Amino acid sequence: MTELDEEHLLRRVARADRAAFDELYRRTSPWLALRLRRRCSDDGMVAEVMQDTYLAVWRAAGSFTGLQGGGSAAGWLWTIAARRLVDAMRKRARHPETPSEELPVRSTPAAEDEALAGSIGDEVGAALSRLAPELRAVLHAMVLDGLTVRETSILLGLPEGTVKSRARRARTTLKEALS
């Protein structure tokens, strides 16, 4: 099983091969969790997104078109995870949890936010933190991850025009905040 690449493992998962699924998870879960943690500092949300992602992989492995469809297995997996993460963040924004008084509240900024604040200064970091979450998500994808408009569109599940307009609004808002 270890000699098979991820694309072949996905084809076997599509045929309900549990051993192939286990091997795919063993190979891909460490980097996927790491990449999700770069975007979200909430370990509970990352764990939930991981579970949802691999459940979706198990159910939809047959829809993976492979290299002939223009994508890699890792890219397909990341697209599913990124969409699940965005969905989880939207859900949390609509239904914020009221923290229990008995539980300590831990407020940890995302690693990307810490890196941005440390490398570009407090003023820019503060301006970035005031951006609406949907604008920040576009900037993170395009600037930090280096994705194109099309890739950002796929990652966030948005039309390309929406990505472009949000990127333009984010730049304008940042420019005004720093003037």
TrEMBL record:
Highest taxon listed in the record's lineage: Bacteria
Keyword annotations of the record: Sigma factor, Transcription, Transcription regulation
Molecular-function GO term, any one: DNA binding
Protein name: RNA polymerase ECF family sigma subunit
Annotated GO biological process: DNA-templated transcription initiation
Signal peptide: none
UniProt-annotated stretches for the region Disordered: 91-114
Annotated organism of origin: Paractinoplanes brasiliensis
Residue ranges of every copy of the RNA polymerase sigma factor 70 region 4 type domain listed in the record: 123-174
Keyword Transcription regulation among UniProt keywords: yes
Family: Belongs to the sigma-70 factor family. ECF subfamily.
A Pfam family recorded for this sequence: Sigma70_r2
Domain RNA polymerase sigma-70 region: 24-94
